[in-house]
Write a structure and sequence with these properties.
Order of helices and strands: EEEEEEEE
Structural class: mainly beta
Distance between the termini: 32 Å
Strand content: over 45%
Number of strands: 8
């Protein structure tokens, strides 16, 4: 994982990357320092960006004692299909990582 300017590593993971419009999405995040130690009590912000590049949701979480957090959200059924980006920002508004989600009708 790439190291941020603040010396943090962040990773998103979820059950899959393909969802239907209107489906509930749960993404977990892990936050680690240069020595791979957990970083607790850090406020994080996730921005959900649609395929046109517009932020459609802003979500907040504070990491727990093991440096983990969970973002829960839904892409509304009326939104366009395509590839969405979830951008994760740290306390200093530094972009830590991104994650792609594919919203498709299947």
């Amino acid at each position: 994982l790439p190291m941020s300017n603040s010396g943090w590593q962040a990773a998103f993971f979820g059950p899959r990357n393909l969802f239907k419009p209107g489906e509930f999405i749960e993404l977990h995040v892990l936050l680690r320092d240069r020595n791979l130690a957990a970083i607790p009590d850090v406020p994080l912000v996730a921005r959900v960006v649609n395929p046109e590049g517009n932020a459609i949701q802003t979500l907040k979480v504070t990491t727990a004692h093991l440096g983990q957090g969970v973002f829960r959200f839904t892409i509304p059924a009326y939104m366009p299909t395509g590839t969405y980006q979830v951008e994760l920002y740290g306390a200093a508004k530094e972009l830590l990582t991104t994650h792609s989600l594919h919203i498709e009708v299947f």
